[in-house]
Amino acid sequence: MNFKDFDFTSDVMDGLTSMGFEKCTPVQEFAIPVILKGKDLIACAQTGTGKTAAYLLPILNNISREGHTGMHTLIIAPTRELVLQIDQQIEGFSYFTGASSLAVYGGGVGAAFDQQKSALVQGADIIVATPGRLLSHINMKYSDFSTIQTLILDEADRMLDMGFFDDIMRIIGELPSERQTLLFSATMPPKIRQMAGMILRNPEQINIAISKPAENIIQAAYMVYEGQKVQLLKELLKGKTDYKSVLIFTSRKANVNGLVRELRRMGFSADGMLSDLEQKEREEVMLRFRNRETQILVATDIVSRGIDIDSIDLVMNYDVPRDPEDYVHRIGRTARASQSGVAITLISDNDMHDFRKIEELIEREIIKIPLPAGMGNGPEYNPSIRRRGSMRPSASGRRDNSNRTAPAKKEFRHRDRGNHQGHRKQGE
What we know:
It contains 14 helices and 14 strands.
């Protein structure tokens, strides 16, 4: 299905054309007609399927038709990274509509808070916010949400995992009861359905590739003892200078800096991304990675969702994630926008039971490759063996990557129709 089939306004179509968007992804094909009809929606779609465009395009179409009458749409997302990604997509899609947007997320100097306050008082068309920072503004009693027509909860499962249920319900209490509500989630556990029952009215439901990696991701794994991991990493990357973009996930923050040092010794340009970095440092790290100035990014799960980078050659799980859903989101960083990709996981003797849960979730057994010659043998794969000892510390930072410590990106903008240079590939 093509976007021209939706009868979007010429302003929205001009933005799509300039960005090279023609054909819809499945989630866009099913979600856009529902949203255009003004119905509530529950959409279960994993990262990389195009869900952000699925809700932004009909919202921008409505704003283009109705004109600018104050705050039209509120989008709530779990992390500053995702808020920035959504706001960047708004900037591209809305260029010819003149719609204004504001990214609201925490931290930074007092001037950033004041800029957000000014934009909230004036009323940007679309607000994209993390829950905690938005509540800080709400508590100051100067925000008027009476004109909000649409509420969007993106990655709702992640927000509940991070403990934002009460914050979300408090924010919803400030909104008009007569509104359209759209809930997007990669998974649909009972707690999400419970919340949906509280805030949505007779919603339509769509399910797209629930919790399954893209078919064009080549998945493989190595059985390896913990002490062999660094050596195996070196063996796998040796001579791979043609790799322009590699993403390595570790579940331990303590591993990040050590792996970056090892990779730099091998001659790679490498950076680390973890929750301890200041927001300015995070943005600089991500900019270098996007621009291919950095070949390898070593990260905790802080970037498993909420980044949009095309053409990642390889995703490596240095550690098996405890949550099977995190595996799907990690490897979903490659093979985006219908491209192919490779995902490799290092399974230690302490990770076998957790990896088996991943295989059960994705309904396939992942091939286990023998270790390279000279490394000796790794452990035998026996998924009945459970993790020994105490629970390992999680580096996914359920609250580390929340909204409470990041600076604002910019004031909201009313865009002119100058030289538009948006060129983004289809994807989330």
